[in-house]
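FIELD: query
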Amino acid sequence: ARLATTDPDGRPHLVPNVFVLDGDTLYSAVDRKPKRSTTLRRIENARARPDVTILVDHYDDDWSRLWWIRLRGRARVLDAGDERERALALLAEKYPQYRDEPPDGPVLAVDVTDVREWAATTPD
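FIELD: result
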């Protein structure tokens, strides 16, 4: 997926991310992969401007198999607490990498308010 936030100057900031859905809330975590800084722009952008967009898409050389789904919502940064711990457990269930190296940074919780999707063909 790709996560879009808006920086303080109103410019879009787009980064790839992995996520898990729990009801109408999407969670992603700051993991241990190397970063340029411990202060991540996507987190600071979400704190300042919580309206975010997530795009998940599938490309295939067979264009009849193309699809995407766009989720819009309000972000909350979880630095600690029960919801953060639950989100990390859900992420670890989905991604074995998180079981081996649990994320130690903040969790981004996005309360989804709008969903749009498209597919080149409808499933059988």
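FIELD: remark
The CA atoms of residues 30 and 105 lie 5 Å apart.
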